[in-house]
Amino acid sequence: DLGRRLEEVAVPDDSLLLLVRPVIAMFADDYEQAERLIEAGLKSTDRWIAASVRMFRAAMAENSGNIIDKRGDAEMALAEFRGIGERGGMASQRGAGASGVIAGADR
Asked: pTM for the full model?
């Protein structure tokens, strides 16, 4: 029931809820809803929230074994965090990007 209600709540474009909602949907095993909520979060007017949502999408892709999408989102999130000078985000994406390179060593 909580998952269904996630999309019923109006959320401002700069709200941290834009990051929290797809996480809740994922834990409710509703990956289609998580994707819809991720798309909404990527449109946030807060650049940190948008980059964090992209970082979360990279983690979801990695969990599902989709290394190509994971790598693309991780690289984009790193660039977004770099653009706003967010050191914590840059550090976490460097680590995430490294695991994608190791896992994708076939290229």
From this structure: 0.82
